[in-house]
Design a protein that fits this description.
Layout: H1 11-20, E1 26-31, E2 34-41, E3 50-57, E4 63-68, H2 71-74, E5 83-85, E6 90-91, H3 111-128, E7 136-138, E8 145-147
Antiparallel strand pairs: 1-2, 2-3, 3-4, 5-6, 7-8
Amino acid sequence: MRPGIARALTASQQFLNLRGNPICAGQGTLRAGALQWCFRTSPSSLSRSYDARLEFRQGSAPETFIDAPDLVVLANGRVLPHVYSQMPTRLCLYLPRAFEWQPWLRLDQTIVPWTALWLYFFEEWLATNEWKGGGEHPRPRGGGRRRDQGIRKTEIADDTPTSEAPARRAGAGDGF
């Protein structure tokens, strides 16, 4: 390994980091370069708790799902913002083409707190019907994308289908 070049963390290393970090206390499985980690999180002390599931395969981007409560039911008929899929509810936590998440980054220090931050903006969206987490969203009718104003997008990451997630990482120095 050359100095200054970060090496990708293996699924085993990510699993050990998840297991050892109290912020994401949970349980999971590790098999053949892939892991699944289930944990409970809450965006604030006044918020409900959510059952989250993180799936990671070495060489791929992590995927994050909310298993309970059902976010579609909580949305009461509204289309969920900032997700890759409604069912199962796969969260959009970062902008992949901006390389906001990299394989040498620890899941317990990025994806897990970004999940809580996404849920914070989700709960605000439930109350206001306005997504304040920043990111890129498809235009209502027609091609192209627009960049939201507000929170800068340089601090998040995932896959880019229907929209991106919170524009600021939890723990990025200014909190939420």
